[in-house]
Amino acid sequence: MKILERILGAGRDDQKRADLGRNDLCWCGSGKKYKRCHLEKDESDRRKKNGMV
Fold first, then answer.
1. CB 28 within 8 A of CB 17
2. Phi/psi of residue 35, each to 5°?
């Protein structure tokens, strides 16, 4: 079910990530705070996408 949710909800993840604060729960559902889970990876991906590497 997780795979299907990822495929169908791909656009929603971007919106969820944009609305997250550092201390909110992570979008991946791990139960961890965003800053301790995916913040660093998401910011790295965002920099690569914008050509700021």
1. no
2. -65, -25
Length of the chain: 53
Give me 46's structure tokens.
Answer: 């965002």
Domain boundaries, the chain: 2-49
* 6 contacts: CB under 8 Å, gap ≥ 6: 13
Tell me the per-residue pLDDT of 9-29, one tens digit each, with 9 for 90 and over: 655 666 666 788 999 999 999
Please give the backbone phi and psi of residue 11, each rounded to the nearest 5 degrees, phi first.
-70, -35
Judge if pTM exceeds 0.70.
Answer: no
